[in-house]
Amino acid sequence: MLLKTPQLLSIGTDNGEESAEAERQQHLVRAAALLARGAPVAVPTETVYGLAADATQPLAVARLYEMKGRPAFNPLILHCTDLAHALELGVFDETALFLATTFWPGPLTLVVPKRSGSAVADIAVAGLDSVALRVTGHFAMRALARHLGRPLAAPSANKSGSLSPTTAAAVSEQFGGELDLILDAGPSSVGLESTVVACLGSHPQILRQGGLTCEEINAALGTRALLATGESAAKGAGQVRAPGATLNHYAPRTPLRINALHIEPGEAALLFGPQSLEGLNQASAVRNLSLQGDLKEAAAHLFQMLRELDQVGAKMIAAAAIPNHHLGTAINDRLTRACAATHLSR
Ligand code: TXA
Ligand code: MG
User: How far is CA 191 from CA 31, 113, 143, 188, 299, in A?
Assistant: First the structure.
């Protein structure tokens, strides 16, 4: 089979120089034209890179599922230009509206009841009567949805079950032969997927930990604080699940162990903070998520460093303990899943 090479078009960052603006617009117009024809385009966001398709074209969305090898019952996030656009697609209660106005644009996805009569293809929401909506902090996805005049269905740009990409090169590695175009804005600044919150019942509920911390959300919500998954039944709020939040998500190919206190010969080490681990000099490769012990920096590095350690041919990746608060809970969530995948499939 002859594989094509995707074109990598640089669209810079939000704070790019004025002179690059015209070129950036040209690239976005070209990407929107591909999307309008039903072709997928990889697009940067501040969380991770997404694989985008016009959410109103069932065939284009089906192609995303096919490319990702994703079970069709796992619905996609719809990316909107702004809150007004999102309000056309979903029904926002008071809490959802508050969260959207407080945290959008940003690393937050809201699951709300689907508004009837919208043009979104059923396959994009996997036939559910709720929708996951997001207005990203990076301009690219918002600008593309505006150029296209439609919402974009965009899951993370990785094969189902593997690590989300935080660079254009990581997207190219997985989908190089299947994509015409990857928009490149450098490494994703947050590096973890968006936090998913459902506003479907009496209490907002966290479905997936991510780039926006529970502490930040709860500080804003005050007395309406988030329910953890599992807490909901007790409060009579009904159980909502993120269909994609299965245990064996987010796995590198190399087995992984967490809370490592020492390194065995030949293991690849993933450290956090200034302290070393016993046996580190025998590691086949070492990465430190953040020498300063900064959780935000660690989140931004997590997937890229896991990907790098995955490529050194180690028998095991040993990850040091990460403090379990703020972004640390989302980092630990991803590491625990990768670790569970080790136990499930090997
Ligand atoms: O950071 C992110 O969120 C990235 C960027 C590209 O936006 N996207 C991403 O999408 O991670 P994806 O498809 O890999 O994950 C979306 C998650 C899945 O766990 C899915 O099950 C959940 O959102 N989800 C989508 N629609 C839902 C719904 N109606 N109810 C509950 N969960 C839903
Ligand atoms: Mg994903």
Answer: 23, 28, 21, 5, 6
pLDDT digits (tens, 9 = 90+) for 170-216: 999 999 889 999 999 999 999 999 999 999 988 899 999 999 999 99
Protein residues whose CB sits closer than 6 Å to any atom of ligand 1 = 45, 47-48, 50, 74-77, 109, 111, 125, 128, 130-132, 134, 154-156, 193-194, 196, 207-208, 242-245
**Which distant-in-sequence residues (6+ apart) come within 8 Å of 234 by Cβ?**
none
The residue with greater pLDDT, 20 or 288, is 288
Return the closest-CA partner of residue 148 out of 56, 62, 45.
56
Q: What's 88-144 look like in SS3?
A: HHECCCHHHHHHHHHHCCCCEEEEEEECCCCCCCHHHHCCCCEEEEECCCCHHHHHH
φ/ψ (deg, to 5) at 247: -65, -35
Q: Residue 105, preceding bond cis, omega within 30 degrees?
A: yes
Pocket test for ligand 1, best of 45, 76, 129 (most atoms within 8 A of CB): 76
Q: Residue 99, exposed/middle/buried by CB under 10 A (0-12, 13-18, 19+)?
A: buried
Taking the C-alpha atoms of residue 224 and residue 221, their distance in angstroms, rounded to an integer, is 5
Residue linked to tokens 């790019």 = 16
Q: For 79-86, what is the mean pLDDT?
A: 98
Residue found by looking up tokens 């950036």 in the block = 24
| 3-state class (DSSP) for residue 168 | helix
Distance in Å from the first CA to the final CA of the chain: 31
Atom index in ligand 1 nearest the CA of residue 132 equals 26
**Which region among 122-126, 177-181, 249-253, 274-278 has the lowest average model confidence (pLDDT)?**
249-253
Number of other CB atoms surrounding residue 280 within 10 Å? 15
By DSSP bridging, strand 285-288 and strand 7-10 are: unpaired
